[in-house]
Amino acid sequence: MISGVPAHVDGRMLPITEKAGGRIVNKDRMWHYTEGIRNWNPIWPSHGIRILPGPSSIWLNAEGKRFDAPNFPGFDTLGTLHTIQDTGYDYSWFILTAKIIEKEFALSGSEQNPDLTGKSIKQVLSRILPGPPKPVQAFMDKGEDFIVARTIEELVEGMNLVTGNELLDVNTIERQLLARDREMDNSFTKDLQITALRGARNYIGDKLIRVAKPHKILDPKNGPLIAVRLNILTRKTLGGLQTDLEGRVMNEFEKAVPGLYAAGEVAGFGGGGVHGYRALEGTFLGGCLFSGRQVGRALSQI
Ligand SMILES: Cc1cc2nc3c(=O)[nH]c(=O)nc-3n(C[C@H](O)[C@H](O)[C@H](O)COP(=O)(O)OP(=O)(O)OC[C@H]3O[C@@H](n4cnc5c(N)ncnc54)[C@H](O)[C@@H]3O)c2cc1C
């Protein structure tokens, strides 16, 4: 696994709090991402970045077989994690085109989003311009998990070089891509990924900045072809200290540990597990802020 947080984010305070009487719940629930890439410019050991993918890339297992529905990019992280683990390999592949990467790849992490962290409206708006954003282009140029090629033969050769094995066969991959591309001409296709692309583009927000216009992957005018090896990236445990609604930390007997409060992620995923195990992406901060407010209010009453 690669690591989605710095080494010092190690959960050390959880066992310390447990020793002081606090109860930890759900510590076996881990949250990993399935679209992790090694940072070419790491800040911490095994620094992994998560791709926040749009829905168009073709997702293959380590042996080059396309995953079944609904294992499409961005659909169901826990479900896809399960599917990948069932293959016996700890990585998988995206195959896509230049047209897909420029519209559909966003990278998670503050250093990968200088337009947002720099609060530059002009730079944020430039995301709709043609061409990949600069941080994505840097990964295409320097990332060890990326292969960019003009032909499918060259692409598959590069993919096998990255993993150092010969698991991938060009004919098997080409056959699947041709079958998928053929469905682009079928307006009532049973390829559910293509149906999903068409559905997503009915929403103006997705159409503008998230979902590439559906196109044939093997048509050279949409190229070059791109392959990305996806590693499992670990982010956190969904477990945390059990609290009551005022943020007081509970002990094994459901009694408050005197003077001990927890707010934010330490109180469980998104601050108290409010979003459940299959939490919706991007909603974790809300629960952290909410539990912080609850604790603040409770403390002000003391
Ligand atoms: C790369 C990345 C991307 C993310 N993207 C999103 C997103 O798009 N949307 C979303 O909703 N959530 C996202 N999250 C999750 C979200 O950032 C966290 O849930 C949230 O920041 C947790 O806030 P917190 O205040 O509970 O904890 P933290 O922000 O981790 O704050 C804990 C603080 O305690 C300090 N600390 C630790 N130990 C000690 C000590 N012993 N003494 C004193 N201080 C100490 C730490 O230095 C830190 O400042 C992302 C997380 C990561 C890592």
Q: Could you please describe the fold and organization of this structure?
A:
- This protein has helices spanning about 15-20, 75-85, 100-105, 115, 120-125, 135-140, 150-165, 170-180, 190-200, 205-210, 285-300; strands spanning about 1-5, 25, 30-40, 50-55, 60, 90-95, 105, 145-150, 225-235, 240, 250, 255-260.
- By secondary structure, it is α+β, with helices and mostly antiparallel strands.
- The protein folds into 2 domains: about 1-30 and about 240-300, no CATH class; about 30-235, Alpha-Beta Complex (Flavocytochrome C3, Chain A, domain 1).
- The strands form 3 sheets. Strands 1, 3, 4, 5, 6, 7, 8 and 9 form an 8-stranded mixed sheet that branches. It has a two-stranded antiparallel sheet with strand order 2-10.
- The mean pLDDT is about 95.
- Flavin-adenine dinucleotide binds near residues 108, 264, 266, 284 and 285.
Radius of gyration: 22 Å
Could you say which small molecules are bound to this protein? flavin-adenine dinucleotide
- What do we call the CATH topology of the largest domain? Flavocytochrome C3, Chain A, domain 1
Report the average pLDDT across residues: 93
Low-confidence stretches are none
Q: What is the architecture of the largest domain at the second tier of CATH?
A: Alpha-Beta Complex
N-to-C terminal Cα separation, in Å?
45 Å
Number of strands: 12
Which CATH class of the largest domain is shown? Alpha Beta
Principal-axis shape equals: elongated
Biggest sheet descriptor: 8 strands, mixed
